[in-house]
Amino acid sequence: MAKLPSQFNRAFDLSSLKQPTTIPDGQVIEATERVFVEQLIPLSKKRLVIVVLWTPRSSESIALVDALNSLSSGGAADERGASASAPVWQLATVNADTEPGIVEALHATGVPTTIALIAGQVAPLFEGLLPVEQLTELLEKVVALARKQGLSESGTSKESAETEEPEVTAAHGALAANDLNRAKSEFAKLLARKPNDKDAVAGIANIELLERITGHDGVEVMTKAEADPANHTLQKLAADFQFLSGDIPGAFARLINLIQLTEADERESIRLQVLSLFAMLEPDDPELVKARSALARALF
C-alpha cells in the first residue's frame, strides 16, 4: 500500500466549496475532493473503503459501479465465505469527468479504476471491469488485508478507537463552516493544554496558509511572480499557491532562494513561513527531509 498522495494532505480554500452532506450508512458516497479529504480518509480508519474512478460515458464504468453497489448493499462475503449481515466496506465513486484533481492525485491512467482505502492508505486494485466471481474473490482478499491492517470485525481499528481531542473536533466543525478564526482558536486551546501537539500545530499551519492566500487568485499571483522576481511579497504568496497545488519542491525552492536574498526581519518572516509549511508534511516525507537540509544550508 502507498501513502495518500500529497495533494490530499494540503489545505484548500473552504470558502469555494459547498459543505458536504452527511452520508447515511450503506449509501454510496459520491466523492468530491473535499468529501475525499473530510469523509473518506477518516472513514477508512474505521472501515474499508472501496473507491471507483468512473465516467457515466462508459458502459463498462456503469456496469462496475452497479456490480460493486450490489455487492456492497448485500454485504460482501468475508475470507471464510460467510456473508455479513451488514457491509464490512463502504463504496465510494469519483466521477473522473468532474473530479480530475482526484484522478491525477491517484495517478489513475484510465477509467474505470478501483482502489481501496485502508487506514488512510491507498491500495490500487484493478483497472477495467472484472467478472462478478473474480470481483467477489478479490474483495474477500481485500477485506482480509484490511483486517490484518487492524480493522476489526466491527469495522473499527485500534487507532480509530482512540478518542479525538475535543478541540480538534470543534476545529474541524469550524472549518466546515469556513470559520477560520474559531478553528484557529480551538487549535490554540489544544496547544495550550498539550504543547507541540502535532494535530494542533498542523491545523494552525493549515489555517495560516488559507489566511495568506484568501482574496488572491492563484493563476494571477503565479503570473505576476514570474514577471517580477524582485517582488518578495509576490514570491512568498506564489510559494503558498505552489504548496497548495502539490508542487512542494517548487514552493520550498522559491522560499529558500528568498532567504538567501534577504536579511534581518524579512529573512526571519520567510523562515517562519517555511517552518509553517513543514508542519503540514509527515515527518518522513522525502520533500520535507530535502527541504530541511536546504534550509539549513541557506541559513548557515
CATH superfamily of the largest domain: Glutaredoxin
Topology as a string of helices (H) and strands (E): EEHEHEHEEHHHHHHHHHH
- Low-confidence residue ranges: 4-23, 75-85, 153-161
Shape call: globular
Please bin the fraction of helical residues.
40-55%
- The CATH C-level name of the largest domain is Alpha Beta
Please report the number of helical segments: 13
Query: Mind summarizing the main beta sheet?
Result: 6 strands, mixed
Beta percentage is 5-15%
**Assigned CATH architecture of the largest domain:** 3-Layer(aba) Sandwich
Rounded to an integer in angstroms, the radius of gyration calculated over CA atoms is 21 Å
Find the CATH topology of the largest domain. Glutaredoxin
- Based on helices, strands and strand pairing, what is the structural class? alpha/beta
How would you state the average pLDDT, rounded? 82
Explain what this protein looks like in three dimensions:
The protein is of the alpha/beta class and 300 residues long. The chain folds into three domains: 2-160, Glutaredoxin; 163-214, no CATH class; 216-300. Helix content is 54%, strand content 10%. It is built from 13 helices and six strands. The protein has helices spanning 33-43, 59-74, 100-105, 132-148, 158-161, 166-176, 180-193, 198-213, 218-227, 232-245, 248-261, 264-278, 286-299; strands at 2-3, 29-30, 48-54, 89-95, 113-118, 121-127. The chain has a six-stranded mixed sheet with strand order 1-6-5-3-4-2, sandwiched between helices. Helix 7 packs antiparallel against helix 8, helix 9 packs across helix 10 and helix 11 (248-261) packs antiparallel against helix 12 (264-278). The longest helix has 17 residues, at 132-148. It is globular. 32% of the residues are buried. Mean pLDDT is 82; it is low at 4-23, 75-85 and 153-161.
